């Protein structure tokens, strides 16, 4: 109705306008030329008006839309042309190493794309970080810059017996030598072929083998699960096999269980209760054989036996039903109580003055911190050469291994014990998603790996660095008089620099953070997420965990598809090479106890019981092993006996392990390659050879490991006033529960270790931060009669701009995500 009326008025107006010219008298005759001039002026005027309008609009937009915040301090990106001391191998260096080695006739290497298990070929190459002594000499100007070299792992399937060799190839980029190197800490020389990680070449042969070996089971797969292994359609009717380790129950075996899963999103939660064990020790796949097959809780030694007995119906059959809607329980599709959700975006980070950290290639500085990061293909991201306020703190901080030891009844779970480093923590650190995995404002870095490949492989945006606001004050105090009258306030929000990678191993994801705080603290954190590895639940696995799912029409007394989450312990090992002002340090514990003493102030009549500590210097490696002991509270201090702070106290850093996890499996044979887990902490004398507590060979033979960390302590070196390495173990027990579906959440699953200054400085270094706040009374004199008056408060912000940001933060879009790794060159 309203609309009609409006339209009526409009029509009237239009008709009035239209009539006007007709009424105007046309007494004045205008010359054509003048008319033209008038028209030109009119056109020019309207163009000018239009321009003015555009300019005005632009001005309004500019005035009301804040600009992008400045970039802040610099970020030069990676300089692949001039790699620094700790920088990873560049793609062109990798190609040079590959071409050099392939051109050495005496090495007899086959190019990767033509290699098979029975050839000699390059498995992996990674930077050989120069020896610490030569780096330190170079840094004080007493030696030339150490040359760059690559460490190359070569699989020799064509030698007899087959073996693994490690070579040093250098100097880069103009290669002149290659030398076979044997680490003195390797207990097995030559490195046994059976302890090598399964690589892509062997994996392809295994897939082909499984394809043929399981052919007689075509009918069983189709009838039991509605799935096929050969000629299937991915995500529709495929049965997939995943291999688990260790590969056998004794040293020297290569017997791998392959578990069958339904190929669907979150397949880890869809075990089918079928497993096949293959002996693939021989370099000749024609000698491989099936050693065991398990179907629905029944054990067979030959595929044909199972197939026959299935056909004549003499075994317990299974027919789990899984409808497509029900199968979505394992996906990341949204579900649950939508009513509790607020469909709004969550908070995000803003850096109103741009990044406060700077990155020059792989060298980072942030509020007094400086360090390098580098990516090892086997052990993942490491931090080296750490300084705080120009003082040396640590030479290396690095993750060494991630293990998980499982329990269960079923054939797979009962022997499951995983060593992450053998599955390559670095080459399993995939692309990070801006805004989810890291702040969208983060700086992202690519990594390059040369493993399972004929050419370098780009891992885009697999490392991120960002400054975060923890939402918690680093320090604050509200000073008030009794009665609550305000006196003064001081505070500083806790911001810190995060260097992050996320490792995806099998079903699990481990978010690994190195965090640098304003107070001189370094935090090492692993947050667990991803899927749990479920086992097929016949009831026999139930004492070891919780049932995670049951197919919709399942009935407890009927055979059906259901998944159990089995108990396991995750353990993480860290190497911390602290150098407090110099490499020459000591290790001391403060041992807490109680004392009961007559109190002098009460005329000797009253006893006071209180805590005290005795400090004790650890003289040798054997007394520097810290077993899990709740009854003996201790602080662990690494100090420099020749460096003092202003008060004459030794400069030190304290090590705090927030995620102690008692290791009960120390006598289990499968954990021998994780002998480090026996100690919460151990301190050893630095040795170039004792570079890592684990190795890529851990998984292949955990029973007689190539590297056994406990031997590092065996020589019982003196550790007073020498270069010390602190090895720290953290971990968690994990009993998967219903809320682990589809994924474990990080909230309650974080393992943290702190390295915090302990008399290293004279006061809290965060006092130097200008972004702090101090509030006090302006008149300097307390005036009780000015009750409730705020006018005289003075806000000190030490020069940093306060107030709302006047800019937009530039963010990296989710759309930059690609997911795939990519061959380069
Ligand atoms: C090596 O393995 C390949 C593929 O399995 C095979 O064709 C070849 O004959 C083997 N060579 C030797 C010398 O055994
Ligand atoms: C105080 O403690 C000491 C030592 O334990 C004991 O010998 C003494 O009797 C106590 N004195 C009193 C007043 O409790
Ligand atoms: C492991 O074996 C040793 C020696 O037999 C024994 O002292 C120790 O208690 C065992 N550890 C555990 C956790 O059972
Ligand atoms: C380790 O060495 C120290 C000093 O050399 C010695 O006193 C101690 O008994 C040794 N410890 C063991 C367990 O051998
Ligand atoms: C305290 O405040 C009262 C009321 O504002 C004022 O009259 C008095 O002079 C003040 N005293 C001092 C010591 O500043
Ligand atoms: Cu877990």
Automatic annotation (TrEMBL):
Residues 100-177 form the Copper amine oxidase N2-terminal domain. Its cofactor is Cu cation. GO terms for cellular component: plasma membrane. Topaquinone (TPQ) is generated by copper-dependent autoxidation of a specific tyrosyl residue. Pfam families: Cu_amine_oxid (PF01179), Cu_amine_oxidN2 (PF02727), Cu_amine_oxidN3 (PF02728). The keyword Electron transport does not apply. GO terms for molecular function: copper ion binding; primary methylamine oxidase activity; quinone binding. One of its GO terms (biological process) is amine metabolic process. Its EC number is 1.4.3.-. Keywords: Copper, Membrane, Metal-binding, Oxidoreductase, TPQ, Transmembrane, Transmembrane helix. The keyword Transmembrane applies. The chain crosses the membrane at residues 40-62. Residues 196-297 form the Copper amine oxidase N3-terminal domain. Residues 348-767 form the Copper amine oxidase catalytic domain. Belongs to the copper/topaquinone oxidase family. This is Amine oxidase. It comes from Elysia chlorotica. The lineage of its organism: Eukaryota, Metazoa, Spiralia, Lophotrochozoa, Mollusca.
